[in-house]
Every structure is written in C-alpha cells, then in structure tokens.
Specification:
The protein is mainly α and 143 residues long. It has 3 helices and no strands. The chain has one domain: Orthogonal Bundle (Helix Hairpins).
Length: 143
Amino acid sequence: MGAGNSGPAVESGIRTEVRRTNRQELRRRRNRRALLSIAALIVVLAIGTLGFHLVAGTNAVDSFYFESMLATGQGPPFPLSSASAKLFAAAMAFLSVGTVVSTLILNLGPILGRLWREGFEFAEREVRQLESEVEEGLRRPNR
C-alpha cells in the first residue's frame, strides 16, 4: 500500500472538512452581518433620539418614540412645530428607513437566496423525473 492509495475514505474526509470549514465561515459571516446591523440600528436610533431631543426640544422618551416610529415607517407620531425639527425628521426618516431596509436585506437576503435556489433545484429534479417518466411511457408499446 503506497502513498498513492489514499482511497475514497481520505477524499470523503477532506470533503467533510471542507464542508465543515465552509459552514463555520458562513456562520461567522452571518454573525458578523447581524452584529454590524444591530450596531447600525443602535447608532441611527441614538442619533435620532439625541437629535430630536436637541432640535425639537422633546424629552428623551418622546424623542426615542418619535425616532423609532420613523425608523419603522410609521411616520411621525405627533406634529413638530419648528422648521428645523421637520427637516431633521425628514432626514432621519430617510436614514432610518434605509438602515432598517438594509439590515433586513443584509440578514435575510442570503436565507431567501438559499430558499429560492433550493426551490429551483427541487423543481428541476421534478421536471427531469416527469420527463423520464414520459419518455419511458412513450417507449412502451400500447396495450
């Protein structure tokens, strides 16, 4: 038995190790995306809360409430009186909604992409199976 006879067991072990490494890398990437997304949301909420407190003169709870309503696309929960507060609200609405949408896409995109791909692969297998059944049926003589 020479070194050239590594055999299928070694190849299988290598493939298993590669898959394990790929899964670990994917898990690491997913965790990093989630952490960065949460950090981005916290930063945007903090900027909005502080900004509304300073620009609109609202207390901390109302400022956080206003910003969270903007970030989720609900709109302003109460009217703002000054033009500067309205302009800040408009800017934060774009920034907040953009951050939330980006976070969702960044974290759900890979999952939805995998489901989409698996669905197509399943459909392709089913089509091939049906095609082979039809071809087999055409080859048989009618009885």
